[in-house]
Amino acid sequence: MLALRKRGADWKRGLLYAFLAGTSLAGPVLAQDVELGSNVQGLLTYARAQSPELRAMRQEADAAAHRIGPAGALPDPVLRVELMNINNYGNDASPSLLPWKVGETKYTLMQALPLWGKQDLRRGSAAADAKLADAKADAAWVELAARIKTTYAEYFRAAGNERLAREVLGLMARLEQIAQARYAGGLGSQPDAIRAQLEQTAMRAELIALDSEKRQLRAKLNALLARDGTATLADPQALRPLPTLSAADAQSLAERARGRNPLIAAELARLAAAQKNRELAQANRYPDLQVGVSPSQMGSRITTWGVMFEINIPLQQASRRGQEREADAMVGAARSRADALSHELLGELGAQLAGLEAARRTEALIRSELLPQSELSLQSAVAVYENGKAEFAMLLEAQRQIRKARQELLKSQVEAQMRLTEIERILGEDL
Q: What are the structural domains of the chain?
């Protein structure tokens, strides 16, 4: 009996150590492993360098930047050659197409000259389109980074839940041994061991589901990184530290979002392009000029010179008014889209800040109250069960409560990461 009590005391210490030593496993830690997948920063760095989607968007933005110069350039000059009197008043038996053998050859070199600032307007419209392409590329990166951060947080939660399940599985195996020993010594009943076996079976089933979830999230992360879905990723080791933000920071963050959010920047660039196109449509009310010089050749000599001026006559005013009204409507639509997007994102920013604050408060509550209470409950259950004054079910319930508290802690930390990711997506930059 003395040996059994000594074994029970050893079991008590081991049980408490197994549970209480693991209460901080779900918290953010500094990652020591730099293997891909161990932290989110490594994934972001890899994606930024390797993503074909980002590469395509950057190439499109580069192409748009190269369109600015040609958009404001003069059109190519035109050279016209007119061979007149090719049969030389009927004196030649067969007509000739050689300039020095016809009656007269007239050369006309013409250059179109857009007036009224149309070249600058076209250049400005192309520059706005280039800014739009840049903003779209930035938006693509912000969206990809947000998806990677979100998936990594889910990956971290699955890995944390797997660790908790493995700890419980090991604990249930030890409890089964203790229950068997207590039953052999006449201090317990056989159903205690059976219930411990049932708990182990449940944990094994849960581990299968968690392993499947981890593999699915690993495949999803690999897809976001443009890697093969079965490529190896390390288990996640750390969550990013949370910045000190609260609902009181909403105004300053809103100003940052207005200046940095790539979607807002894209809509503003679209608005600038629409405004330039409207000004160009209005400038098309007025004619453009084309000038030229015309030397004439007779035989082998240039005999006369001429100068020509040409303008187009903007008579189709109904058509131009329609184009101007179209341009006005496009400006109004672009402005409305920019305003709507700004209000939507800033409203969402407030909601995400409130969610982040709630997640942090929940984490603090679990750490300061729920976990200590669950630990005390487990200690009490262990002591009572050791003395044979409580059922095995009480001990199981105590371990379930502390496991649930640790899961809730992990959930609140991951929720905070999700909220932080959404805030950074709205800001267009990391905090």
A: 2-74+114-427 (1.20.1600.10)
pLDDT tens-digit series, residues 259-308: 888 888 888 888 888 888 888 877 888 888 889 898 888 878 888 888 88
| Residues forming beta bridges with residue 307, ordered by sequence position | 293
Q: Which residues contact 76 (CB under 8 A, 6 or more apart)?
A: none
Does residue 84 register a pLDDT over 60? yes
Per-residue pLDDT, averaged over 221-233, amounts to: 87
| 45-48 LR contacts (CB < 8 Å, sep 24+) | 46/225, 47/144, 47/145, 47/148, 47/224, 47/225, 47/226, 48/141
Q: Largest Cα–Cα distance in the chain?
A: 141
In 10 A of CB 174, how many CB atoms?
14
The pLDDT tens digits for 98-114 are 777 777 888 889 988 88
Spatial strand order of the sheet with 78-84 comes to: 78-84, 104-113, 289-298, 301-311
Q: At a CB cut-off of 8 Å and minimum separation 6, what does 98 contact?
A: none
**pLDDT confidence bin for 27, thresholds 50/70/90:** very low
Alpha carbon 14 to its chain's center: 46
Partner residues linked to 82 by β-bridges: 106
Under DSSP, the state recorded for 368 is: I
Q: Name residue, tokens 């490529």.
A: 231
Q: Once rounded to an integer, what is the mean pLDDT over residues 182-206? A: 77
For 124-135, the pLDDT digits (tens) are: 888 888 888 888
Q: Do the strands 78-84 and 301-311 form a parallel or antiparallel pair, or are they unpaired? A: unpaired
Q: Is 342 helix (H, G, I), strand (E, B) or coil?
A: helix
Which tokens go with 177?
Answer: 């041994």
> Which two structure tokens, joined as six digits, stand for 24?
């901080």
Residue 19 pLDDT more than 60?
no
Task: Identify the H or E element spanning 112.
Answer: strand 104-113
Q: Pick the closest to residue 242 from 366, 416, 37 (CA basis).
A: 416
Give which of 378, 374, 411 is closest to 171, Cα–Cα: 378
